[in-house]
Amino acid sequence: QVQLVESGGGLVQAGGSLRLSCAASGSIFSINAMGWYRQAPGKQRELVVVIINGGSTNYADSVKGRFTISIDNAKNTTYLEMNSLKPEDTAVYYCNAALRLGRWGPQRNYWGQGTQVTVSS
Predict the structure, then answer these.
(1) For residue range 40-94, what is the model confidence (pLDDT) as tens digits?
(2) What is the CB neighbour count within 10 angstroms for residue 44?
(3) What is the pLDDT confidence band of residue 121, given thresholds at 50, 70 and 90?
(4) How many Å apart are CA 21 and CA 78, to the nearest integer?
(5) If you write DSSP's letter for every residue of 34-69 in order, what string do you get?
(6) What is the pLDDT of residues 45-60, one digit of tens each?
(7) For residue 4, what is the enclosing H or E element?
């Protein structure tokens, strides 16, 4: 059984910072990729950033230079450092992971429950 548990959301003033965490638990053979998505009220879910296990990253233009993703493979945890936050960053942030549970098995995609980030003016 695999679970993704997110934490670190909250209320912050514009210009402030938050650090989100997403811990994957279960019998995980390998992490192929982890990333963050967000969904604001009335809008579709969008990709924020993804990191491949080899270290390559892809950031949305709206967060580039302000957000930083990292992975602690020993803890099966990804982090999202969010700096210079803007009101338009307000959304529910979801962790996503592409995991392989067996050496010869297929890649499977998992989602966290989401954590609310609210940025005030």
Answers:
(1) 999 999 999 999 988 899 999 999 999 999 999 889 999 999 999 999 999 999 9
(2) 7
(3) very high
(4) 6
(5) EEEEEE-TTS--EEEEEEETTS-EEE-TTTTTTEEE
(6) 999 999 998 889 999 9
(7) strand 3-7
SS3 87: helix
**DSSP state for residue 2 in the 8-state scheme:** -
Residue 88 backbone dihedrals phi, psi, to 5 degrees: -70, -10
Count Cα atoms within 13 angstroms, Cβ side, for 67.
Answer: 29
Q: Are 29 and 105 in contact (CB under 8 A)?
A: yes
Whether the Cβ atoms of residue 81 and residue 67 lie closer than 8 Å to each other? yes
